[in-house]
């Protein structure tokens, strides 16, 4: 099968619009063998290679002026193995397609992040995660992956086969090779009851550890310039399914969370002085509700309001003190923040550069509407996060470099040594990787 060439020299832009690249070649392979040929040809021409997904990373992790690999034809479910409890998907398959196919077969992932637009390889390579007491990261559900390395080799990696590569490549940042297929553990389809409830900031702070311990999945949003939060507790349910009503679900998820919020963000960007008042109204707009549905419909929500984001992973015990510092900082500063702050959790895992590697973790994510100056806010928050030993999300904005990250990850040297072995010529390198991994 012949690789499709997309118009060369065409600019690529990420979802948020804050990263642009102009590769000399843009190709859309349909198999691992085609990817291997692209990689070896690029290396011979002295060009770098970067695969892209749907551009939901806010960093320049996928940017290149060399060869850009598009995911358009590297899609589809390769195999569902009920006996093994696994599904194998081509790298460019969207999480939506993966979940819809699994549902049709009566199967499900254990956990997910909150969007479905990403490709499977893009989601796992940057450490996409949801929230969970026992599970969170999508990468932690991987049982095997297929990887094309810099010399054109196509490797299958698992706990049994190339285990040292498997340990790192599950969140590989695009530094170790091109992921062409991912195998996930799956389980029989189940139901989750979601309980969404407004709650005061001080109550959430006092009860955070209790909520994390008592619920399979707990998260909350704090609205800056207010003392108001919105909490969400997700737990498995025996059923029956009671999804949100058609009208009420549209009001909550589309009208309020997207339509009205989009308008509020636009007004706040134009007139920042109005933001605290808008925040007070917005924080009271979402009412308590309970519903029961299949997992991906509970875990994910539509995201139509475009923004930029920074997220830090903290030792779980540091999260509430750090959040209190963020609140105090916003209250004494002239900043006007129109986006809620999101807090989620994850258990420790064994993935080399996972943000939850080796420690129980809480995530604090800050956002600003696209086009709003973000530097002052993100810098101030980042200063707090790094003082608490924070690890930045690999796909979200941050200013950390290899010097800092080597101290934040006990296995950092293990990853960079593997990179030296697999890609000594830096075929998969770019400016972002030089900053976060070093030369």
Task: Explain what the structure shows.
The radius of gyration is 21 Å and the shape is globular. The chain contains 13 helices and 21 strands. The strands form 5 sheets. Strands 17-14-16-15-19-20-18-21 form an 8-stranded antiparallel sheet, with helices on both faces. Strands 7-8-12-10-11 form a 5-stranded antiparallel sheet. A 4-stranded mixed sheet has the order 1-4-6-5, with helices on one face. The chain is α+β, with helices and mostly antiparallel strands. Helix content is 33%, strand content 25%. The mean pLDDT is 93.
Task: List descriptors.
five-stranded antiparallel sheet, alpha+beta, 439 residues, 25% strand
Global structural class? alpha+beta
Per the principal axes of the C-alpha atoms, what is the gross shape? globular
How do the strands of the widest beta sheet line up side by side? 17-14-16-15-19-20-18-21
Oligomer classification: single chain
Q: How much helical structure, as a percent, in the residues?
A: 25-40%
Radius of gyration: 21 Å
Tally of DSSP helical segments:
13
The counted number of beta strands is 21
Share in β-strands: 15-25%
Low-confidence stretches: none
Largest sheet: 8 strands, antiparallel
Q: Overall pLDDT, averaged?
A: 93
- What is the straight-line distance between the termini? 36 Å
